[in-house]
Write a structure and sequence with these properties.
By secondary structure, the chain is an alpha+beta fold. It has helices at residues 3-35, 164-174, 176-199, 205-226, 237-262, 269-294, 304-327, 334-359, 372-407, 419-430, 446-453, 455-472, 497-515, 546-575, and strands spanning 44-45, 50-54, 57-62, 77-83, 92-99, 101-107, 110-115, 125-131, 140-147, 160-163, 437-443, 479-484, 487-492, 525-531. The protein is 55% helix and 15% strand. A 6-stranded antiparallel beta sheet has the order 3-2-4-9-6-7, with no helix packed on it. Helix 3 (176-199) runs parallel beside helix 9 (372-407). The longest helix is centred in the last third of the chain and has 36 residues, at 372-407.
């Protein structure tokens, strides 16, 4: 590569990087401006004293913000009550956070909201909003909770009074950036999967691309639930719960398929065995999880820890392989490594922030937003770039290998099949039981042309004849080749006497046409041909290779033709 080309590549990369940074800045800036359109938040958290009954044990005048209760387990019954404060909000709703629990809510002992029962399988988690009457001040509210899973909170959340319109508007504004990114991920992955199936016959590698397209489609659905963005489309916590756990438990299997084919088939036998085990476990895990869930042995949230262990094992194994590649100075997947590093760093940042919030800044947990969605998006983009960069390299190598293989079968001077190419054609007709034909052709006066006019003129004679022979065979299924020197052959897989004579007649006609103006020497040739059902082959078909016999007879007939032509020339010469 020249210095100028190298400088241009550097400039193009820098320019591209700057444009990407500017685009990201504009994208984020736009959503910062959107956030300026938030309505004034007039919500109020009900911070009064609560009366709580936990499995029959009574706690009076409790502050829910600070009181730690025993971890809520399946079958636990919790009741807490409070009096609505003297604080008025238009179009008011009471927002309460629920975590896999059946609930009944009473206003002055009148049941106004009920969700699930103690025997329910999946009730999900998230905020529910119950309309408040206009004169809600001083109402006694009682909330009865029956835990249906073992993964409950260790503290009860404080109810909040919200303006329904303000709550929905601010909710949409706050999550607009994440919603756009997540929908982009989902739509991009749907497109990838569809294109992979549509064009997989043209480019088989695209079938492989569908694996991580499906994986990130499921991850996109998971984040849609995890960020509570699904509320825009459905406020059903049950639907959200099933969608979230289904996508989380199924997604890693497809990603493991991609990594296995892309990475581990080139690794040591030990690492391949480890990853096969991981692949089988991740394929079996969703089936077992849903079987346990619907037989009420163990519900989906209770096997979440097993899913995390599998994911952690998967990530560690992939990371080890990537580090091994870096140490081997294998930069094949550098874009994927970059995306994975970003995802891991964001995951670590999320874990640190979450633990700081839960232990030191609990009051800020309501506003906690994970960075994982951005990490997934960047990792997806990195994987797509990585895939297409590597596919381009592979296509180039495949095209180069194909060109080299083709050159090995082509005579460089005449652009016809060389001896090896003709041998391949012979092998093909050996496997075909149909009648075939071979024409052997020898150019006259090549040595004379070389001696008298030079090798350049002799080479031109060969090239001109090759053009004539190719033209005479145009439209026919056959192999036209140069066996070496001045010897040429035409191999016709499905032939009869009429087809071979037609080739010779066309060749003679084209020769006569070009010889009118050709100098310094006219084109002259001798030929002979033979069919695999030729009468001369009778009695010889079981004594040797049929192709060699046909070629031998065609060559002998060509030699006889050459001798006859020489004799005619001598007779003409004697007469003169």
């Amino acid at each position: 590569m020249s210095d100028a080309s190298r400088d241009n590549n550097v400039i193009n990369r820098i320019t591209g990087f700057i444009l990407v940074v500017i685009s990201i800045a504009i994208f984020i800036g736009f959503f910062k401006i959107v956030r300026m359109g938030r309505y004034k938040d007039d919500s109020v958290k009900i911070t009064g004293r609560y009366d709580v009954t936990f499995n029959g044990e009574v706690y009076e005048d409790v502050d829910l913000a600070t009181k730690q209760f025993p971890s809520i387990k399946k079958g636990d019954h919790v009741t807490y009550s409070f009096v609505m404060p003297d604080y008025y909000v238009d179009d008011a709703v009471l927002t309460i956070y629920l975590d896999h629990a059946a609930v009944k809510i009473y206003y002055d002992d009148e049941l106004v909201y009920e969700k699930g029962s103690p025997k329910s399988r999946m009730l999900g988690y998230g905020n529910v909003s119950i309309p408040l009457p206009d004169d809600y001040k001083g109402i006694n509210v009682r909330v009865e909770i029956d835990a249906i899973e073992n993964e409950g909170l260790s503290s009860l959340s404080q109810p909040v009074i919200n303006n329904a319109r303000t709550l929905l508007h601010n909710y949409n504004v706050d999550l607009s950036l994440y919603l756009v990114i997540d929908i982009a991920i989902v739509m991009l992955c749907i497109t990838i999967v569809l294109l992979s199936f549509i064009f997989s016959r043209l480019l088989p590698a695209l079938r492989h691309l569908a694996y991580f397209g499906m994986a990130f489609f499921l991850m996109g659905l998971y984040e849609l639930c995890s960020y509570d963005m699904l509320k825009i489309f459905s406020d059903s916590l049950v639907f959200r719960g099933y969608l979230e756990y289904s996508s989380l438990y199924l997604g890693p299997f497809f990603l493991t398929l991609y990594f296995y084919k892309e990475f581990f088939r080139h690794e040591t036998e030990l690492i391949r065995k480890i990853y096969r085990v991981i692949l089988v476990l991740q394929g079996v895990f969703p089936v077992v999880a849903f079987t346990l869930h619907f037989t009420d042995i163990m519900h989906l949230p209770e096997v979440l820890t097993v899913c995390h262990v599998l994911l952690l094992t998967n990530v560690v194994t992939v990371l080890v392989v990537l580090i091994r590649r870096v140490l081997r100075k294998d930069n094949t997947h550098r874009y994927m490594v970059f995306g994975l590093i970003i995802l891991i760093l964001l995951s670590i940042a999320d874990m640190v922030r979450f633990n700081l919030y839960i232990r030191l800044m609990r009051e800020k947990m309501h506003g906690y937003v994970s960075y994982l969605l951005v990490g997934f998006f960047l990792f997806l983009i990195a994987m797509i770039i990585d895939f297409f960069v590597n596919q381009r390299k592979r296509l180039y190598k495949a095209a180069h290998a194909e060109a080299m293989a083709k050159l090995a079968l082509i005579d460089m001077m005449t652009n016809l099949a060389n001896r090896r190419g003709c041998e391949n054609a012979f092998d093909a007709i050996r496997k075909n039981n149909k009648i075939f034909g071979i024409i052997c052709i020898d150019i006259n006066f090549l040595k004379l042309t070389n001696d008298k006019y030079g090798h350049q003129e002799g080479d031109k004679l060969l090239v001109d004849f090759a053009g004539l022979l190719t033209s005479a065979c145009e439209g026919m299924e056959c192999t036209v080749g140069r066996m070496g020197g001045d010897e040429f052959t035409v191999i016709v897989p499905e032939a009869d006497n009429e087809k071979l004579e037609s080739i010779i007649e066309t060749l003679n006609a084209k020769r006569d046409e070009i010889n009118v103006s050709r100098t310094p020497m006219p084109i002259s040739f001798a030929y002979g041909f033979c069919l695999s059902d030729d009468a001369e082959l009778e009695g010889h078909t079981g004594t040797g290779d049929i192709v060699e016999l046909v070629y031998q007879i065609a060559d002998e007939r060509m030699y006889q033709n050459k001798v006859a032509m020489k004799a005619r020339r001598e007779d003409v010469s004697d007469g003169v």
